[in-house]
Structures are given as C-alpha cells and as structure tokens.
Design brief:
The protein is an alpha/beta fold and 246 residues long. Helix content is 37%, strand content 17%. The structure holds S-adenosylmethionine.
C-alpha cells in the first residue's frame, strides 16, 4: 500500500514511522511511504504557503495552490478514485472500522493542515474524505496522519508477524481484548488465572471470550449497544450484571 502524505513537515512523519513494525513493513515493500513537502510548491521567493484569512480573524490559512501543485506531482500515478483524506477535527472520528476500510486501498493520499487549517477550496477540489482523530484540536495534521498510517498498515496482510495477530484484538469484533499474562506465573502474589495454565484450549477460549464481554461491559459499554453480539453473549452479560447487583 502506498501512503502519499502532503505535509509541511515530512521529516516528522518519516522519522516517526522508521521504527519497529512499520519500518519492517517498508523494508519488506508491503508499505511505501511517500512524503511530499508542500513548501516545495510555494512558488515564491520567501517560500510562503499561508496567508491571512479573508474576512479577518486570527491566524493564517494554508493556501490552496501549493497543496494542489504538490498533489499534481502524484496524481498521474494514482488510480481513478484514489481516496484523498484531509486530517481535520471536523472529520469522521477515526476508528478500527475506518482503519479496516482504508487498509483495502492500494494508494491513500493524506493531506495535513497547519495553522488555522487549509483554504476550503482545496477540500472541495481534491479531498474525498475528512478524518479526525478525536474531539480536540492539534497544531497540525501530521500526528493524525501517523496514527492513521500506523493503524491501517498493521492490517495489511503480512505486516504483522506470525507471532502477532489482530484476530481477537480490541474492536476487532466490537469487544475489548481479554486480559493478557506472561511469565512468571506469580508476580507479587498475583497469580495468573488457573485456566490459562491448564493447556485446555476450549476452556481457555471460553474464558477469554467471557473476559472480553466483561471488560467491554465494564470499560466501554457503549461498544455493546448496537453491536451484533449473539443472544448467548447478551444473556452472559445480563447474568453478570445481575450477579454484581447481588
Ligand atoms: C489548529 S488545526 C485547525 C483547526 C481549525 N481551525 C478548526 O477549528 O477546525 C490545524 C490542523 O491540524 C490538524 N488537526 C487538528 N486537530 C485535528 C484532529 N482532531 N484530527 C485530525 N487533524 C487535526 C488539521 O490538519 C488542521 O488543519
């Protein structure tokens, strides 16, 4: 998958994605990161890419032309219908479902704003999706772009090693993941649940699934409402709730 990031700070993205699994994915050519510096398309001797907002007000707005020109350098290499994401607090709030959806794309263009944001006309002209990483305002889109690239990349087949898996991971089935333990079996008198030491795969699997249900109910009950959990799981949660009340 090719990520094309239009940004004023390409080194920020390059550096932070040059570690661990995403670095390995790039080395193995499963992920290709192409950062394009919008400032290279300033087109003026002072390299300005922003200006004051029409109508007045504080701050500066990124001009449409440099972003458009930066985009033109990659456009010919993109498939018709390639998604162009603008990172913005006004967008759809990013989650695992969106990550999964984007991981099916071959190319993804990500536009990072700065200052007061970008001229609205560049959104109208090239952007297909607006994505937010949460209801707060950052100084720039780069951190959001990195989050999107990281979450999407690890879903691309082959990026996670055999030893890592996202099958039971939090959000993969509307549930949070069960608790995890590793050696030693006893840490400061806190012992690993016996079932995990039993070697009985069916019991371990059942215990983990029930723990996922309990965790999700306790930590993120919002994930359960509207989720497609089975009647059996719903009954398990009802029984659990009734037991707590007793
Ligand atoms: C200071 S923000 C601009 C906020 C804009 N004036 C507004 O109120 O909607 C500068 C840039 O940071 C990025 N940004 C800020 N918060 C973000 C968020 N929650 N999710 C994704 N990108 C964000 C966007 O690219 C935005 O153009």
């Amino acid at each position: 998958m090719n990520f094309h990031v239009l940004t004023l700070f390409p080194e920020m993205i390059d550096q932070s994605l040059s570690h661990s699994m995403i670095a390995r994915a790039q080395k193995n050519k499963l992920v290709n990161l192409n950062c394009i510096n919008i400032r290279d398309f300033a087109g003026n001797k002072h390299n300005h890419v922003d200006d004051t907002p029409y109508g007045g007000g504080a701050g500066m707005v990124m001009q449409a032309q440099p972003i458009y020109d930066a985009f033109q350098t990659i456009k010919a290499s993109l498939f018709e219908g390639t998604r162009v994401v603008y990172m913005t607090p006004q967008g759809r709030v990013f989650n695992q479902k969106i990550a999964d959806e984007l991981s099916k794309e071959q190319d993804l263009v990500i536009v990072c704003g700065h200052y007061e944001g970008v001229d609205e006309r560049i959104i109208d002209e090239i952007v297909t999706d607006e994505i937010s990483i949460g209801d707060f305002v950052l100084t720039g889109g780069e951190l959001g772009a990195m989050i999107v690239i990281d979450a999407v990349s690890r879903l691309i087949p082959g990026v996670l090693g055999k030893e890592e898996s996202f099958q039971d991971e939090s959000f993969s089935n509307s549930l949070l993941e069960y608790p995890q333990y590793t050696k030693p079996a006893n840490f400061m008198d806190r012992v690993v649940p016996e079932v995990l030491l039993s070697g009985h795969h069916a019991n371990i699997s059942k215990w983990r699934h029930e723990q996922s249900l309990i965790r999700t109910y306790n930590k993120r009950p919002d994930l359960l409402s509207g989720s497609d959990i089975s009647a059996k799981d719903k009954k398990f949660i009802e029984d659990y709730k009734n037991n707590i009340k007793k």
